[in-house]
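Notes from the 1:1 (GR / supervisor)

We went over the backlog. Supervisor wanted to see one worked example end to end before approving the batch request, so GR pasted a single chain during the call. The sequence is below; no edits were made to it. Supervisor asked that the structure be written out right there so they could see what the output format looks like.
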Amino acid sequence: MILPETAWVLFAAGLIFLAALILGVWKWQQSISSPDGTAHRYVNVAHNAGLMYSFATSAIVAPLVQLSGWPSAVNITAATATIGMFIVTISNYVRLGIEGRTDNQMRDRRRSLRGVREALIIGEIGGTAVLLSGFASAQL
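Structure output shown during the call:
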């Protein structure tokens, strides 16, 4: 039987995948209307990141939640942190694609975003580490 929190993670994976497919349409539209046949770098990155994060969510995060030994509240919190950071990252790539001002966000970075980057690191790695340790405690 699938746990309710696993069902929510899989639902989130499906939403991310759907968003990635829609981003693929945007990428295609830019590609066919561009003289060189390519979309803006960050439109491409947003599409690819959406695909990768949707699969990471369904293939890794969901099974870790399902098989974790931690209480549901811990698993939900850790999964939400991880998935939330995936969504923030994709959204940033979409923003950069819409603005079209840079082809390298690290070269043109703003100091004000340092805290956001640190939150992404803590949320993605921390949430995954919690889920992985819960899996290890219950399954190994």
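Supervisor's comment: The CA atoms of residues 102 and 108 lie 7 Å apart.
Batch request approved.
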